[in-house]
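Entry type: protein chain
Record version: 2
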Amino acid sequence: MLRIYFTPEDLTRTRISAAQPMWEILLSLYRLRQRKGAPVHEEWRRSVVTKTPVTTRLLTDLVPQSGYAVDFLTPMTNQLSLADGLEAIRSTPKRRLRKDLAILAGGRQLPSWTTSLADGRKESVVQLADAVDRYFASCLAPYWDRISGRINQERATQAKLMADGGFERLVQALHPTARWHYPVLEMGYPVEHELHLGGRGLQLVPSFFCQGLPTTFLDGDFEPVLVYPIQHRPGWSAVDGSRGSLASLLGRTRAKVLEAIGESPCTTSEVARRTDTTLSTASQQASMLRAAGLVTSRQNGQSMLHTVTSLGLALMAGSFS
């Protein structure tokens, strides 16, 4: 369980971040190595796994598939740019490198190259920053407009929640495990962890590649952040040709309806709005998708709520055979 302790000042200093390249780099490394991960990331993983630079091993050495990943790989910068993040890595103090690597080791032996990194040798720190840069260029840059665009949509949604319902409405909607009882926000977390804001405020970081539970820095001395997963449309990484194949298989309108429902469960009226079609067209196409086993529908008050099935997800992710 993660417990975040607020003061009155922290309530007014909570803000919602735009896309953070360094966090997306780190979290995408988990998705890259999950062969049985969420279908929504599977097409991306398969498309980049053969293009991943060999220097990415330096990053995976510091980001195990489970447990602690070094905090210095995700510096928080005001400009939110990749260039600023890389410069922050190059400027990481020796004491920070040593502290994080000692925590990562946890009684086990790290790869030999990390010894020079722990010593703060410039060539090792520069080599690491270059590996981060190359990984981003090969695996994230081709999709960055889509990733940052979806995060910006989420940011706007969260800002509206706060404007309409206040801070309590915002934090309760961050994650299914979120529980707010002033002055403590509780959320699901792999271990017991407390974060005392102490008037510094909290930066909420909606993340595209975060999956499952939220995350934050282990060290409470860092700027307080809460990184949490957002929903996004399956098939988001498909190249134009792949999207065209889905349209060829289902028809353009039906493919749009399937992708709209795949974005998140929605009513027929919401499907019509998302696809810019009429209510009758949305209803008809949803019925056809339901008959094909690609969506399920259930009564929700006066409306019908549609949800994409695992078969529909696989089709959009390109793993259908």
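Comment: The two ends are 40 Å apart (CA to CA).
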